[in-house]
Design brief:
alpha/beta; 12% strand; two-stranded antiparallel ribbon; 137 residues
């Protein structure tokens, strides 16, 4: 990931992170490993969330967030999890390895190997679910 994409070149943000002891907290993009061929799909679905600081418990930041830094600050709470849905369709979650559950970010994102399969799968999806192919369609 490029520094600008990770937000690491924002001096105000970096100073705020240093002040609050968060300068060494990993970004989501630095903490996940995506199965080859699924990188584009993951980037499209997660977008700017890839910049998120991975925090175990957000309550420790309550006071610090009263005066947030200028620029973009995204946080991902690593201790939350959502149960998997009951259908047998593969999920984008299955294509990512991470030290914590990513279900709060990717629950309901199903995968298809191609657009033809995606059209077939969409008939089985719940209202809150979506399907994506490796090229991001």
């Amino acid at each position: 990931m490029q520094e600008s994409a990770l937000g690491t070149n924002n001096n105000d943000l970096n100073a705020w992170l240093q002040t609050h002891g968060l300068h060494d907290v990993p970004r989501l993009a630095q903490s996940i490993k995506v199965e080859s061929g699924w990188e584009t799909a993951v980037e499209i679905v997660l977008g700017t969330k890839l910049q998120a600081l991975c925090i175990e418990d957000m309550t420790i930041l309550q006071e610090a967030l009263i005066n947030p830094p200028s620029g973009k600050l995204a946080l991902f709470e690593t201790s939350h999890n959502i149960e998997k849905t009951e259908n047998n369709i593969d999920s984008l979650l299955d294509k990512i390895q991470a030290p914590w559950p990513l279900s709060t970010l990717l629950a309901g994102v199903k995968i298809a190997v191609d657009i033809k399969t995606a059209y077939q799968i969409r008939k089985q999806l719940a209202e809150y679910e979506s399907v994506i192919t490796p090229i991001g369609l």
